[in-house]
Automatic annotation (TrEMBL):
Family matches, as SUPFAM superfamilies: HAD-like
Name of the protein in question: HAD-like domain-containing protein
UniProt signal peptide: none
Organism: Naematelia encephala
InterPro entries for the chain: HAD-like_hydrolase_phosphatase, HAD-like_sf, HAD_hydro_PyrdxlP_Pase-like, HAD_sf
GO molecular function annotation: phosphatase activity
Length: 255
């Protein structure tokens, strides 16, 4: 059960794109960036990521521990992200094409919505940043004045080992009378819960060729299409919208 609301389903859409935010739409993971620079640092953070990938600990518990190591006001964290996080070079073109062709784009993130909208407001227009649908976690200010001097993450699904079970953003579309073709884009351990439920899964490769999500998909035998920027996603989504079968796209990607 979600403790946070969901946006209405796009019941008339023939195609729907759901995408992870950090490291997928953005050039780097904003939560990792905060932990690496203001928390306990890269080495411990990366070791915990690998433990989640190996299913030794849950993403929910590891992420909470990472954020608890950040002893800085929330506004400082938000400003750091606005100054340092950039969009994937192909995302604006992809987003504009989807808007023009009635393909909803929904951000599905294990991060916190206020941070995502803050970064978007610097990379798109503030107006556009408010329009984009975001399904994410939230934040609670815990200092007496509620100004964010101290804060903690509010998980959408606190009972889930993912904290935010991204499959719950996808599965309702499967129950619609006219089920749309579902695309999902992701890169990391927080996307594992969504990986099996998209019709066409895109796995983002980092500059060094790594992708925790792709490693998981290979291990689980989940068909996927690797990509390095959203121009490649746009090309494939266009093909499917114009009538190419998803099975053919997956086959061409080596599945």
């Amino acid at each position: 059960m979600s403790v946070l609301p969901y946006p209405p389903l796009h019941t008339e859409a023939k195609f729907v794109v759901l995408s992870d935010w950090d490291g997928t739409i953005t050039d780097r993971d904003s939560n990792d960036f905060v932990v690496d620079n203001l928390g306990f640092g890269y080495e411990k953070r990366r070791a915990m990521n690998l433990e989640v990938l190996q299913e030794k600990i849950t993403f929910r518990d590891s992420f909470r521990e990472m954020l608890q190591s950040v002893h800085h006001p929330f506004e400082d964290c938000k400003k750091l992200l606005q100054q340092n996080i950039k969009l994937d070079p192909g995302f604006k073109e992809f987003y504009e094409w989807c808007k023009a062709n009635n393909v909803p784009v929904i951000i599905v993130s294990s991060g916190m919505e206020p941070n995502i909208r803050a970064v978007l407001s610097t990379l798109l227009s503030p107006e556009e940043a408010l329009k984009i649908e975001i399904i994410a976690n939230d934040v609670k200010f815990t200092d007496p004045a509620h100004t964010g001097e101290t804060w903690e993450i509010v998980y959408r699904h606190p009972e889930s080992g993912f904290g935010h079970d991204k499959s719950k953003a996808i599965l309702p579309y499967r129950d619609l009378p006219s089920k749309p073709t579902l695309f999902f884009c992701g890169d990391g351990v927080s996307d594992m819960s969504a990986a099996k439920h998209a019709d066409c899964l895109f796995t983002k490769l980092m500059a060094n060729g790594d992708s925790d999500l792709m490693a998981y998909c290979k291990r689980q035998g989940i068909p996927h299409v690797p990509f390095t920027d959203f121009k490649q996603v746009l090309e494939r989504v266009k093909q499917v919208v114009e009538g190419k079968p998803v099975a053919e796209v997956l086959k061409e990607a080596g599945n």
